[in-house]
TrEMBL record:
E.C. number(s) listed in UniProt: 6.3.5.5
SUPFAM superfamilies: Carbamoyl phosphate synthetase, small subunit N-terminal domain, Class I glutamine amidotransferase-like
Organism: Catenibacterium mitsuokai
Annotated region (CPSase), positions in chain: 1-169
Alphabetical list of PROSITE patterns matching this protein: GATASE_TYPE_1 (PS51273)
Quaternary organization: Composed of two chains; the small (or glutamine) chain promotes the hydrolysis of glutamine to ammonia, which is used by the large (or ammonia) chain to synthesize carbamoyl phosphate. Tetramer of heterodimers (alpha,beta)4.
Residues annotated as the enzyme's active site: 246, 331, 333
Catalytic activity as recorded in UniProt: hydrogencarbonate + L-glutamine + 2 ATP + H2O = carbamoyl phosphate + L-glutamate + 2 ADP + phosphate + 2 H(+); L-glutamine + H2O = L-glutamate + NH4(+)
Gene: carA
Pathway in which this enzyme or protein is active: Pyrimidine metabolism; UMP biosynthesis via de novo pathway; (S)-dihydroorotate from bicarbonate: step 1/3; Amino-acid biosynthesis; L-arginine biosynthesis; carbamoyl phosphate from bicarbonate: step 1/1
Family: Belongs to the CarA family.
Name under which the protein is recorded: Carbamoyl phosphate synthase small chain
Length: 355
């Protein structure tokens, strides 16, 4: 069946429908990972967004449910150049097309993803529609432009707290749309991880006799969740060791009065170089975010840049002065992606041991 991708700037791409047949409007971003599409699909940070994969062949190893970063996909739509209808892998549970059908995720294949990526890179991420109906652009353009990614943190977070692992260190993990491997990496390091809903009051966590607090990744504009920022501020004033990733990194900055801004097309992929400013060592990282901390908003008396992106110089990590708080924009839990920065979980353990 024919399918169409209509962008808010009027560009129309014609391809073939796959996955679940439905019409969806969302924000479109591109991801430069060559593998790990299951982890991309199930990363809650993509809530409200459709993902364009720059690697041309997707689905060749099927879907292994063990690789999911959450219980189900969070992307709104999926765009590929060529879909492999039959995946081949000894770990495969099902083919990608069947997986998307089962989870009600529409896709479009057979379009020029190189041209689409150039558009998003040059003009910035933009809204679009995936549909099997042949519209005149004028019929839907206003509706497409009106779309906004809103309320996604509270839509992604867990409804009740739960525990992962057992161990001597007790960690409270705020779930703003947490990837599953964050808790798993802590559990591997002899931690008992209690995962809390995003709206949990700081007082409940601070009274829980934890050794440290982790703030997770998540979707959307960090400045939108003002009620959560207020609770993060209380956490930051508690003296507890805190390590934050991605959205958590941004929320901690906002809690200290710094500002965030939207990137032109974001960082989405498993091949982004980041530099540790203390050691000058460069690591390859997994990233998925549209927002960053504004460089000139950081108060040098309060915090300093810890990591920077080698490609564009944006802030990728912050160390807070006179506080036991460190945050990073990238994903040290690394699924999918290189494991270069997994050592940061070990650093968090040391922070808790030395509190």
């Amino acid at each position: 069946m024919k399918a169409y991708l209509i962008l808010e700037d009027g560009h129309v791409f014609e391809g073939e429908s796959f996955g679940y047949e439905k019409e969806v409007i969302s924000e479109f971003v591109f991801n430069t990972s060559m593998t790990g599409y299951v982890e991309v699909l199930t990363d809650p940070s993509y809530a409200g967004q459709s993902v364009v994969m720059t690697y041309p062949l997707i689905g060749n190893y099927g879907v292994c449910l063990e690789d999911q970063e959450s219980e189900h996909p969070y992307v709104e739509g999926f765009v590929v150049n060529e879909l492999s209808r039959l995946g081949s892998n000894f770990r495969k549970n099902e083919d990608l097309n069947d997986y998307l059908v089962r989870n009600h995720i529409p896709g479009i294949q057979g379009i020029d993803t190189r041209a689409l990526t150039k558009l998003l890179r040059n003009d910035g991420c933009m809204n679009g529609m995936i549909t099997t109906h042949k519209y005149e652009v004028s019929e839907v353009i206003d509706k497409i432009k009106a779309f906004k990614v809103q309320g996604v943190v509270k839509a992604c977070t867990c409804k009740e707290k739960y525990t992962v692992g057992t161990g001597r260190m007790k960690v409270a993990l705020y779930d703003f749309g947490a990837k599953r491997n964050i808790a798993n990496e802590l559990a591997k390091r002899n931690c008992e991880v209690t995962v809390f809903p995003a709206t949990t009051p700081a007082s409940e966590v601070l009274e829980g006799n934890f050794d440290g607090i982790m703030l997770s990744n998540g979707p959307g504009d960090p400045a939108e969740v003002t009620d959560i920022i207020a609770e993060v501020k209380k956490l930051s004033e508690s003296g507890m060791p805190i390590f934050a990733i991605c959205l958590g990194h941004q929320l901690m900055a906002l809690a200290h009065g710094f500002k965030t801004e939207k990137l032109k097309y974001g960082h989405h992929g498993a091949n982004h170089p980041v530099k540790d400013l203390d050691t000058n060592r460069v690591y390859i990282s997994t990233q998925n975010h549209n927002y960053v901390i504004k460089d000139d908003s950081i108060d040098p008396a309060v915090a300093k840049a810890w990591f920077r992106n080698v490609n564009d110089g944006t802030i990728e990590g912050v160390e807070y002065l006179n506080k036991n708080i460190k945050t990073v924009q990238f994903h040290p839990e690394a699924n999918a992606g290189p494991r270069d920065t997994e050592y940061l979980f070990d650093e968090f353990i040391k922070m808790m041991e030395g509190k």
